[in-house]
Structure formats: structure tokens, C-alpha cells
Design goal:
The chain is of the alpha+beta class. It contains 6 helices and 6 strands; from the N terminus they run αββαββαααββα. The strands form 2 sheets. Strands 1-6-5 form a 3-stranded antiparallel sheet. It has a 3-stranded mixed sheet with strand order 2-3-4. Keywords: CBS domain.
Length: about 140
């Protein structure tokens, strides 16, 4: 099996020019925990923002500046200051045996899937692996 067999296609992405507040609202409204960050100008994948990283940033702001300043700080904090820029990427044909080991070794929840032009095609999440496990278990019955 390959990445293309289990990935979530057309994931919700966010522009590198968005704010942390934009990301916070987008994650809440779309019920996602990972946002591939794409360049506003080229549309290419440039980073990944995780819910864990976003919450950590918000809590740091809250502790440092207090509740009154939190909204303003979130609105003026660019995604580029918070996102992971060294995120591992996958291709459509990457074997799942390699990907699952990478998830286990690095305790990841998501990896973006990109094409040869670095455009986001999908994401593979830990939930995608759980769904695959469910399918395989149901076949065994």
C-alpha cells in the first residue's frame, strides 16, 4: 500500500500571510488539527502548523501578556513565526511501511503529501492509519 491509498485529499491549508488568530479560527471551524502552510504568492508548501504548536504559542502569549492582550497578540503574530518549516513531506507513491515507521519513530500526527511542484495534494494523519487498521480488521472477520 502507498500514501495515495490512505491520504486525506485536498486538505484545509492556510496562507503564510495569515495570523495565528486566523489559524486558530480555521482549526476550530473546520475541526482539523494540522494546517499545511502554503506560500501566498506561489501556492507551494512551505511549512506545517499543528494544533499542539498553536496551543503552546497561545498559552505562552497568555502567560506573558495576560488575557486582555491575547486577542491582539494572536492577530499580529504571523503564521511564519509559529509554523514548522522543517516538516517532512511525502509523495503519493511513498510505501506505507516506511511512513508508518516514520510516524512511530517521530511521534507525528500528520505529514503533508506534495507533488513534484511542491503543491499540497493531501495529508496523511494518524487517524488515516487508524481507519486503515479498521478496514483491515473488518476484512479479517
Amino acid at each position: 500500500m502507498k500514501v495515495c491509498d490512505i491520504m486525506t485529499p485536498n486538505p484545509v491549508c492556510i496562507s503564510d500571510e495569515a495570523s495565528l488568530k486566523d489559524a486558530h479560527q480555521l482549526m476550530q471551524s473546520r475541526n482539523v488539527r494540522h494546517l499545511p502552510v502554503i506560500s501566498e504568492t506561489t501556492g507551494e508548501f512551505i511549512g506545517l502548523l499543528t494544533h499542539k504548536k498553536m496551543i503552546a504559542s497561545v498559552l505562552t502569549m497568555l502567560n506573558k501578556y495576560g488575557q486582555g492582550a491575547l486577542d491582539r497578540k494572536e492577530r499580529y503574530t504571523p503564521i511564519a513565526d509559529v509554523m514548522e518549516t522543517q516538516a517532512q513531506k511525502l509523495g503519493l507513491d511513498e510505501p506505507l511501511t516506511v511512513v508508518v515507521q516514520y510516524f512511530i519513530d517521530n511521534k507525528l500526527g500528520c505529514l503533508p503529501v506534495v507533488d513534484d511542484n511542491n503543491k499540497v495534494l493531501g495529508v496523511v494523519t494518524s487517524s488515516d492509519f487508524v481507519k486503515l487498521c479498521q478496514r483491515l480488521l473488518l476484512i479479517q472477520k
